[in-house]
Each structure stands twice: as C-alpha cells, then as structure tokens.
Amino acid sequence: MSKHASLQRDILILNLEQQLENAAKKQFGKPLARCTDKQIYQVLVGVTNDLLSVSEPCAGEKKVYYISMEFLIGRLLINNLINLGVYEKVRAILEKHGRDLAEIGELDTEPSLGNGGLGRLASCFMDSIATLGLAGEGVGLAWHFGLFKQIFKNREQRTAKDVWMNADSFLRRTDTTFDVFFGKKKVTARMYDMVIAGYDSGVCKMRLFDLESVDESLVKRGITFDKTAVKKNLTLFLYPDDSDEAGNLLRIYQEYFLSSCAAQLIMQQMREQQYDYHKLPEHAQVQINDTHPSLVIPELIRILVEHKAFSIDEAIDLVSDVCSYTNHTILAEALETWPMRYIKKVVPQLVPYIRALDERVRIRFDNPKVRIIDSKQRVHMAHMDIHYSHSVNGVAALHTEILKKTELRDFYELYPKKFNNKTNGITFRRWLMLCNPELFSYLTELLGKGFHKNATKLKKLLDYENDKKVLDRLAQIKQHNKVKLAEYIEEKEGVALNPDSVFDIQIKRMHEYKRQQMNALYIIHKYLEIRRGKTPKRPITFIFGAKAAPAYVIAQDIIHLLLVLQEIINNDPKVNKHMKLVMVENYNVSYAEKLIPACDISEQISLASKEASGTGNMKFMLNGAVTLGTEDGANVEIHSLVGDENIYIFGKRADEVIAHYKNADYVSRDFYRNSKVIREAVDFITSAKCLKAGNKKRLTRLRDELLNKDWFMTLLDLEEYIRVKDKAFRDYEKRTAWKQKMLVNIAEAGYFSSDRTIRDYNRDIWRL
Ligand code: 26V
C-alpha cells in the first residue's frame, strides 16, 4: 500500500468512533446508541467499505490473475474488521452501548459463490495474496444465487435459491463493461469488485463479472429455470444440473464468459499501463483453477492474433508462458471433456484455435492419449492446459505423485519439469483468529505475536507439551467451544447435545469417495452395540454437514440415511444417553466456523488416492482436533508432521487401492459375506426400523449399491475403521495424553498456512 493510502487509513481508524457516529447520523438520523442491531450492521459495512476504498492493492510490474469459477469467500464483515486491525476498537465502542459485535456479525449474509474445497481454497489465497502484499487479483463470476440453499424435508434434501446479494453486500459496481460474443450473439459483462483486506497490510481485489441482462425472475420454483435462456440465466446459478445437454451447454457458456472477461481484463490493464504485448508474460501470470477457466488459453491467443497482429505461433508461445494450471481432482467424472459440437455451438470463434493447438500436439507427439481432441471429437480441457501452460501442479504431495505416476503419466513423461506440487493451505486469520478467538488469544499470550505473521512459530507450543496448566487451558477452551456449539445447534436444529460427550465431526461435500456412508455404518454398528448393552465409557456425538449435488442420486440417498438414523437414534431412550447424531442443515462456511473449534475427532476418511488434498483436515488440526483418517491427500503430510501418536490412521493405502482398480478385483459382496459386523450394519439400512422412518426406494438403492458396486470400497476399510475409531474413543479417556495430542496438532499446523502455499506458488510459478 502507498504511504498516502496508509496514512488516510490511519486517520480514518484514529477517528473511528466519530466515523461510526457520523455514519449513523447520516444513514439513520440518530446516534449509534439508538440504532437497531441491523442498522449498526449497515453502519459498520459502510465504514468498512470506506476503509477498504482508501487501501490500494499492491501495484507491480507483474501481476497474477487467479481465475476461478468459485470463491467460497465466507462472511466478510468480521473478517475485514480483523484484517484491517480495528476489530478490538469497534468491539469496545459497541460494548459501551451494550452491543455485542459478534452478534452483529451474525447478521452478515454469506456470499454464495462456491461449492466446496476448490472455492474455499481460492478465497484463502485472496487473503494470503493481500497479506503478503503481492500484486494479484481474483477473477470470477458474480453468481446471483450461487450454490443452492439446502433444506431438509421428510428427511431428504430439498434445494432453494440462496438470495445473498443485497445493498449491504461488499460487492461494488464498477464502470468497466466488456462485450462477450458467443458467435454472433453479443452479451455485456459488468465488472463488480469485492475487496479483500489482508492482515495488517494490503488488499486484494476480486473482479466478479455479471451478465448485464441477467433476469432473476427466470427462477420460478426452487432452483428450476429455463436453461436455454442464456441471455438471462448465465450468472444465476453455479453448476446447474448438468445431467442433460442444455445444462452442459450452459456450463460452457459460463466458462467462456468467465474466460473472455478475464482475457479482456488482462488486455485492458496491459493497454492502460502501455506495456508491450510482446512482454505479456512479464506482466501477467494466469493461474487456471481447475479446468473451468481453460478457455482463457485459446481466447488470449485469439485476441493476440486477431486484434494485435501476432502470428499464431508467437501468440501460442507467449500465452504458454503466461498460463499455469492447477489440478484439484483425479475423479474421472470431474475431468472436463466437451464434445466439439458443443464448443462449436457456444463459441465457434475459438474452434480454429483449439484445432490449431491440437494439430501442433499431433505433429509433435505420436501418443493419441495426449491429444486435445480425441477420436470421438471430444475436447480434453486438461490436456490443453498441460500442453499450453508452463506449470502443472497438484495440491498435496501424494496427489501430485499420483498425477505423475498414474493419471497424467503420459504428460509427465513429455514435460517432467512442468509438474510440481503445491500443498494446499488455509488462512489462519479466518480459521483461527476469527473462528476461535479464545484459542487465538491464549496462543498469543503464551507465544507472543510472532506466529500471527509467521505461522511456523506455532511450533514453540511444543515447549509446553508437559505443562499441565497449558494442557488444561487448551482443553478448557475446547470445552467452552463445545458448549457454545451445543447451544447453537439446539437453537438451529432443535437437537440437544451433551457438551461432555466426544464431538466427532465430518463436514464436507457429500460424495461417495469421501465415504460419509462408512461413518454411517460405524454409527449403526455402535447403535446396535448399545442396544445390546455394550455402552461406551463416554457418550458420543456424531455431527455431519454436507450438501449433495442435485443430480447425484446416491449422495441424496446417503443424506437420507443419515437423517433417518438421526431420527431413530435421538429418539431411542435406551441409546440417546450414550450417542446422538445431528446432520446440520445448509452447511456452509459460517457453519464451519462454529463446528471446527468444537471438534474433538476430525473425520478424514476418503478412499486413499481419491481426496486430492482436503483443507478441512488442516482447519480441524489447527483448532486442536485429532484426525481420524486414511493415508490420503494432505492427511499424509499431517501424519508425518504430528507422528503416529497424534493421529489415527487406518485403511488401505493409495497404491493398494489403485491396484484394486487396475485388477478390478475388489468385490464388496465378499466382505459382506465374510464379516458379521459388516453384514449386520449393511442390513440395518433396510431394516424395519429404518424403513419405518425412511423412504424404501432410497434405502434399498443405497444398500444395493454397497453390495453390488461400492465403487469407493467402503466395505474394504470398514472393519479397520471401526477398530481404529474405537481406539480413538478409548484414548480420549486418557485425558492428559489426549490434551498432548491436541497440543501437538496445533503446534504442527503452521506448515498449512496458505501464506506458505502462496509463497511457494510465487517462488516457483509466478515469480512476481
Ligand atoms: C468439478 C465438477 C465437474 C462436474 C460438475 C460438478 C463439478 C463440481 C466441482 C468440480 C471440481 C471439484 C474440485 C474440487 O473442489 N476439488 C477439491 O479441491 C480442494 C482444493 O484443492 C481439495 O482440497 C479437495 O481435496 C478437492 O476435492
């Protein structure tokens, strides 16, 4: 930030109380003391916006554009106040008037701009780019209803539009508009800015583009709308149902809209700075967040050729030096391949460029598996990214190794130097300071402020591993967070929890590979044991939160099973003293902020090789939960940091799982036949008890799936999962040893700061 800007900001902060009073007077004609909570909220948004607008983003000769379909940004008010360094001051001012800032923060609506991990990561990166003072911008879309809102009815997931945009949102309209052409059809894109404050320093701008002609009234019931009315619907919903052609086409419209806006933004900034287009890579670096923005490659090439008189070969070379690609998943169904005829229909102007890129690949390499356009005329977006980027990265060490050895092996052989790993990270501002203020203050008291900006300094906590006072205080903070969460859940979900029970939590998107169904089978097993009189030493609370894609039937079935189990267990007087289950409704970032600090056991139980990294695992660890997990994604790195004593690892390893797929030799029914425990749990799904509370079709389909297919090998790991989880519950009773595990997890979490991740990206890829 420039000296002038930071001076202006300091002056504003110095007179903060006066600023707030003036704003209250101006907006509502009364002093702060007489404003309602809602009005105070509006005053705070206004003043925060003023503070943000005098802060300039870091200028630099070279800038990174982080292009992403999703930014799961979370509520912004409190985060911005913390990062701007005024949280305490505002809290104290409001306290004088008997108001609670935390309560006012609850009035903030959460921007609905993302699905899960990939979008949340992008947001952590915005925070770190701002904090580290790097020249960077996020580029995305301003989704009106974003991801759907989840509602439970009859123990099933229902979907509704998530109306989050309002006058108080941090979205700022700008005067910048771009024309986007779909063939000859023209639409107009308008740029909105969302400014993200870095901690104790700069800001980072997110450029979110919206369709000027968007029409919210197109949405009639729930989340249904005319998928073909592209001129009205393009920025309404994130990932609409893509189970039909109209849905797929809409996705390509959205992807090109994003890519075209990003390319035009880059070219506009190049022009404004009067930079030489021949030096594009020295001024612009583009990070392609999964394949969704991949069309930015042919689009930039097209602009250089058609509007800046470059030869196509020159343009290709330049753009390849600009772009880098991050892969976030190895699931085959998520690797985007689009039929050429779809692309022709949506953006015919890119077709010759995609063909040209493919031709060059065909000339250079014989291997048909590395082509961009395959024999069925399908365009492989990831292939285009890999050939025409200067860096390809995975998001955790194991994930990158699997990409190199298995999924992208043919490409790794062609370009070994392009491949690199960037283990994911999380921002400690939101995931410690904001969500767990008590732990944050205590750590600051104990370790000093060093770790605020250098997270690895958390390691100093290890000096206190045998200090009873410290261990007790950590446990006391955890207990306090559990009490708070129990109150919240009772109010919100109507389920009373016992804060003295062990809190075992699995929160993430609902997907078979993440194996919430395995956790459900454990819960059934425990339920049956308790019914037979084998009660646990201490009650257990199982908590889930997850949304399922509307078109993903089995995922809906798993949600249904969990809600049915919740009904049975919580109402069974013989059992509910010993265990409870709650599946929270509409799990989102704000809910995560309440759940994570209260967790004892963090469930990270994906089938090894399938979870690229996971980032929830890091958030839990930082907040003193102990991981129960497979050797998958970043769990592997967590394991090696904390050591065997401080994590519960089970299950087949990635190489064994990959071999099972290769040999097609996993037969779930064999596991069912050979184990009474498994049989009993699986059969319970369609027992009279479950059928009474649930939907026969869903429950039968789910049980059949486990018996006849079980693509993600639930039954393969189930027995070991039960054994290791039971051990974790037993160990929880060795209280001192458990508190030490908590301490070690917190101390070792520093590696997972997204500041480290962003420094790595910058050092190896962007070189700003
Ligand atoms: C792809 C698709 C394609 C089909 C339509 C729906 C859909 C929705 C999302 C995606 C991409 C999902 C990729 C993703 O979120 N990956 C997650 O990325 C996290 C950040 O790197 C990582 O921690 C998680 O392990 C990984 O699953």
Features of this protein?
nine-stranded mixed β-sheet; Rossmann fold; 768 residues; binds ligand 26V; six-stranded parallel β-sheet; alpha/beta; globular
Structure description:
- This protein is about 50% helix and about 15% strand.
- The strands form 4 sheets. Strands 5-6-7-2-1-8-9-12-13 form a 9-stranded mixed beta sheet.
- A hairpin with a 2-residue loop joins β3 and β4.
- α21 packs across α33.
- The protein is globular.
- The two termini are about 15 Å apart.
- The structure holds ligand 26V.
- The site of ligand 26V has 19 residues, from α7.
Q: Could you say what the CATH topology of the largest domain is called? A: Rossmann fold
How many DSSP-defined strands?
Answer: 19
Give the class-level CATH name of the largest domain. Alpha Beta
The percentage helix is 40-55%
Q: Determine the structural class based on helices, strands and strand pairing.
A: alpha/beta
Distance between the termini: 16 Å
What is the percentage of strand-forming residues? 5-15%
Alpha carbon gyration radius: 26 Å
Number of domains: 3
Q: Which strand order do you get reading across the main beta sheet?
A: 5-6-7-2-1-8-9-12-13
**CATH architecture title of the largest domain:** 3-Layer(aba) Sandwich
Quick summary:
By secondary structure, the chain is α/β, with parallel strands linked by helices. 49% of the residues lie in helices and 14% in strands. Bound molecules: ligand 26V.
